[in-house]
Amino acid sequence: MLENVVLLLQSNQALFFSLVGVLGLCVGSFLNVVVYRLPIMLERQWTPITYETTFNLVLPRSHCPACKKNILPLHNIPLLSYLFLKGKSACCSQSIPLRYPLIELSTFAISLFLAIHYGVSWQFVAALGFLWSLLVLFFIDLEHKILPDNITLPLLWTGLLINSFQVFTSLENAVYGAVFGYSFFWIIAFFYQRWRGFEGLGLGDAKLLSACGAWFGWQMLPLIVVLSSFTGTVAGLIYILKKRGSLREAIPFGPFIALAAFITMVWGQNIVSAYCNLFHVSF
Predict the structure, then answer these.
(1) What is the pLDDT of residue 87?
(2) Does the predicted model carry a pTM greater than 0.85?
(3) 140 and 253 part of one domain
(4) pLDDT digit string (tens) for 203-243?
(5) Domain end marker among 80, 109, 138
(6) How far apart are CA 110 and CA 23, in angstroms?
(7) Does the pLDDT of residue 246 top 60, yes or no?
(8) Secondary structure of the chain as H, E, C letters
(9) What is the pLDDT of residue 76?
(10) Backbone angles phi, psi at 95, to 5 degrees
(11) Domain range holding 153?
(12) Measured CA angle at 230 (ends 282, 223), to 5 deg
């Protein structure tokens, strides 16, 4: 049965891309729920208060953040509802945060891009799960400055599991990648805190880099670190100049690791090969 489905999708690219596009929009809508609700769920776990209402990824029903009224199914269609309502809530005419259509559009675009890049393959399925998770971490860290263990740790173990079948790299490289990825950021965070007297790099970043190492192997860690450090430095300088901030202000680093991981997943092998050929080195 599965083989017949695979053959059908391989022989009919229009069907394959259409299904992936619809899936991307639907998953993007769910990722919005995760980005909004997971930080609240974690805050409730950390706060010793008994809450009267159940709050998780399923309950209560989707509702307007402004007036708390339930959202009708017609007004909850991924991306299309935002365009139809012109960015305004149907119940109270409050502006819908741009994050909602942005996540749905990003999930749609990334899903289609991976479908084109990998085709019908196990790499495509694994890459989808990895990048959908990175999207959630990207926006949660951007808004709340946290990288939940609920996502980073399963991402780490999943990377080791899929590479036991050598989907992206060997299991040996994945294990070394997980260990080196965590150790690298942990050491930097430890000495930075001793030097400056305040936390400059959270252990959530270390866990995320460890997960990236588990997915792509230790050989890709230098590329991820360089790319994330460069983009993070540029963004930090722009923020300081534009907002007149200070070096003590916390700027989330997780989004830059996520961006670097995406680049590494798609073009990492080509970048590393070009570097090795240019400088006549080998891994």
Answers:
(1) 84
(2) yes
(3) yes
(4) 899 999 999 999 999 999 999 999 999 998 888 888 777 76
(5) 109
(6) 11
(7) no
(8) CHHHHHHHHHHCHHHHHHHHHHHHHHHHHHHHHHHHHHHHHHHHHHCCCCCCCCCCCCCCCCECCCCCCECCHHHHCCCHHHHHCCCECCCCCCECCCHHHHHHHHHHHHHHHHHHHHCCCHHHHHHHHHHHHHHHHHHHHHHHCCCCHHHHHHHHHHHHHHHHHCCCCCHHHHHHHHHHHHHHHHHHHHHHHHHHCCCCCCHHHHHHHHHHHHHHCHHHHHHHHHHHHHHHHHHHHHHHHHHCCCCCCCCCCHHHHHHHHHHHHHHHHHHHHHHHHHHCCCC
(9) 84
(10) -65, 135
(11) 121-283
(12) 25
175 with 201, same domain?
Answer: yes
Domain presence at residue 11: no
Beta-bridged to residue 63, according to DSSP, are: 70
| 151 and 268 share one domain | yes
> Which residues fall within 8 angstroms of residue 44, CB to CB, at 6 or more apart?
51, 55
- Residues of 138-166 as b/e, b for ≥16 C-beta within 10 angstroms? bbbbeebebbbeebbeebbebbbebbeee
pLDDT over 70 percentage in the chain: 92
